Amino acid sequence: MNDEIEFSRPSQPCLTCVRRASGVMVRHRGGEPLLRQRLPRGAAAARALDRAGRAAGGSAAGARWSMSLLELMHRAESHVATSLMRPSAWAPLRKLASRLPAQMTRDFIFEYGLQGPSGSADLSISILRGSPGERALAGLEPQESIDPDLLNHPVWRLTRLFGSRWSDPSLPIHAAIAAIWLEFDADGHDGLSPPAVHVVPATRLAPADAWPRQASAEEAYQAAALAAESVLGAPLAPLRARALLDLLTGLPPPAQPFSIGYLTSRNRGGMRVAVDQLPLEGTLDVLGDVGWSGPIDAAGRIVRDLGSLVERIDLQFYVEDALLPFLGLELHCPMLEFGSTTMSRLLDALVGGRLCTPGKRAALLSWCGWERASAEGVTPSLILRDVSHIKLTLSPDSAVTTKGYLWMGSRPAGGPPADPLLPPGSPEVERAAEAGAPGGGRAGGPR
User: Fold this and answer.
1) Under a CB-based contact definition with an 8 Å cutoff, are residues 428 and 435 in contact?
2) In this structure, is residue 419 part of a structural domain?
């Protein structure tokens, strides 16, 4: 790990195969591509990928489905520059990873501040319904257990209670929640907080593998209410429940709630609601529709100045006993476009606005890439690294803080022989062809 960063485009496997193996999809309706979704956003994409990997050869008998979180953490460390993260901050991350089940997750995100000196990182890990991680969280895998010392903490005990209920198909919470994220905040003393749970609501109105989901306000609220009884140890307080329901029902189509999180590690507690499927031109209209009382002009400047540089902007709202005047604006560029100038242009704009340092800009770009990986007892994998998104958090006084989110995921190296979600002529295939990938990127497995 060093501060001298040189970014070069990887030569293999082809871009379409990497996108396919990571769950990036384009669905077409009436000939028009819909918004592309990344695997951290889609439990259905992960299930489809697992089936495809098994069909292409699957895992060796008894092999683990993914490298462990600790193994992935060690690989990540060599790709994160010290301009982004001080070396001492890796110790609590490695310690946490060593105390979690090896198969807890195969996707995680590091979260870094972009405006100051190098510091520590928050960590988020994803767990999909029906995955080994779900069973491990519930304590149903004797060989995949959470360190008992962690479970001495009351927040961890509630998280285990949530996991045990979520994993039970006979309970409504199992059908109501498609996936979760566990978020561990750096505590400022080279430690990590107990997890905050963010739930991804499922929908009853479409097949299990449909994507994008169209979870209704009612379904999202039901998922949040069911989770609260375990995560918080009590039902949602009446005022907080009312504020959450007002926000969800106030969202105009096609906006939809992606996740609802319980910020149990924060001083004020509260909830964070992520909203996606927003057309860029309608972003500010959503703020008025839900009654957001923050600095609308400042939000408008961000959308106006940066909207043309990104694929889309998602929103994060903060709820206590009322909707708070804080706002998160997630800036998303196309993922798995290694060497693309799209993210570079966005980061250049942030550096120009003093919302990102030049060193951290270089560090984010140097993170992107992939590698083949193998280990004893583990299915051969592709280890993928990309920038998930950049988030600007807007305070009531119009102050802006900026964070970068680095995603890492492990996928089976064997890909499907064909992918109906990537038809010939789709943007994914065309970009792969432009990049000079053999065969236009249409072959099934990595090369």
Assistant:
1) no
2) yes
Domain that holds residue 304: 15-441
- Tokens 């001083």 label which residue? 267
Q: Which SS3 state, helix, strand or coil, does residue 370 take?
A: strand
Give the pLDDT confidence score for residue 335 in this predicted structure: 74
In terms of DSSP bridges, do strands 122-128 and 107-113 run parallel, antiparallel, or are they unpaired?
A: antiparallel
The residues, ordered by sequence, that sit 6+ positions from 356 with a Cβ below 8 Å of its Cβ are: 114, 115, 347, 350, 402, 404
**Count of the separate structural domains present in the chain:** 1
Q: What is the pTM of this model?
A: 0.80
Contact of 253 with 277, CB cutoff 8 Å: no
CB atoms closer than 10 angstroms to residue 437: 22
Query: How is 56-84 classified by DSSP, letter by letter?
Result: TT-PPTT-BSS--HHHHHHHHHTTS-TTT
Question: Which residues make beta-bridge pairs with 110?
Answer: 123, 406
Task: For residue 5, tell me if it sits in a domain.
Answer: no
Chain length of the chain: 447
Low-confidence ranges of the chain (pLDDT < 50): 1-62, 209-212, 415-447
Residue with tokens 């871009």: 15
* Residue 137 maps to a domain: yes
Asked if residue 2 is part of any domain, the answer here is no
- Of the candidates 294, 305, 322, 302, the one whose C-alpha atom is nearest the C-alpha of residue 396 is 294
